Amino acid sequence: MAIVVVGLNHRSAPVEVRERLAFSPEEAEEALYALRRREGVEETVILSTCNRVEVYAAGREGPSEIVDRIRKFLLALRRAPAAWERHLYAMAEPRSLRHLFRVAAGLDSMVLGETEIFGQLKQAYKRAHRFGATGRFLNRSFQAAFRASKRIRSETRIQRGNVSVSSVAVDLAQRVFENLNELSILVVGAGETGRKAARALASRGAKRLWVTNRSPERARRLAEELGASAVPFEEWIERLAEADVLVACTAAPHCVLDASALAAQLPRRRGQPLLVVDIAVPRDVDPAVGELEGVFLYDIDDLREIAEEARRQRERELAVCESLIEQGVKELMEAIDRGASFRRPACEG
């Protein structure tokens, strides 16, 4: 049985490519069904985050045949240009398993050691497991990767400090303005990323904090938790006349802020600068917004420099982490080589 991964991430593809190939949870379920109908693909998990889109698969054909089918599937599904194939990487075991372990532990992330990816990977696995898209090989592989990640968290300091894209976005705001407690900050989106961004802002001293979401109840709950103010979703663009910082992190499939909508608010700003940090994929903010006078737009790829500083601080722990991963991959490969009869386990978490 071949176990492969095909995908792209923040290193292999820019955000305009990643957002085109990204999957919503609903689209991921449809893709799981369509992909398993492809000959040779017997088990599959689809992971889609702001920084990566990956398909893990197992099948009885050769790895190259399975990889070729997945590549063609991804590009055809998104009607992507054939030239985008150059952004896709592909691996077979043991490299595919080593990659899975590294992803679970946050070692392949833009922010080295980030914790958010563990939950995202677990959700992707649970979705596939619930859908019946996994079998004994991917079940065993993902469970082993989760165990290794937990061991790395407990035995190393790789995840010490600020280890999420949300916290890096807050680092950027703090670099630009220094004192967050003097700013008016609007967070658009109260999902997992929005919650982390808002909490990080509050923990760093932000006092005039507004949150908005398409679900008023979700925005209200987050605002109450943080002592912030909830803004009706239909009114948030008007608040840009007063905000110093906008953090955009919705799950919308399209831009929620275009240049014309923001331009209409600029006269009321009286020349005050506005920092816009867009950490959504697909992007929430039209790139043309960055061309407006007094507006400074950063998307998720622009956060790379700040993330690299965090990476350098954690690199001392890498050798220990890689050693633990090698041990886990070796044990898993030995079990697979022995032809162990894997039972379909209950899904963790």
**Percent strand:** 5-15%
The count of β-strands is 10
Number of helices: 14
* Order of helical and strand elements: EHHEEHEHHHHEHEHEHEHHEEHH
CATH topology of the largest domain: Beta Polymerase, domain 2
Describe the 3D structure:
By secondary structure, this protein is α/β, with parallel strands linked by helices. It has two domains: 2-155 and 316-337, Glutamyl-tRNA reductase, N-terminal domain (Beta Polymerase, domain 2, 2-Layer Sandwich); 165-293, Rossmann fold (3-Layer(aba) Sandwich), CATH 3.40.50. Helix content is 46%, strand content 15%. It contains 14 helices and ten strands. It has helices at residues 15-21, 25-36, 63-77, 95-104, 116-131, 136-155, 165-177, 192-203, 216-226, 236-239, 259-263, 266-269, 304-314, 318-337, and strands at residues 2-9, 43-48, 52-59, 89-92, 184-188, 208-212, 229-230, 245-248, 274-278, 295-299. The strands form two sheets. A six-stranded parallel sheet has the order 7-6-5-8-9-10, covered by helices on one side. It has a four-stranded antiparallel sheet with strand order 2-3-1-4, with helices on both faces. Helix 8 (192-203) links the parallel strand 5 (184-188) and strand 6. It starts with a strand and ends in a 12-residue tail after the last helix.
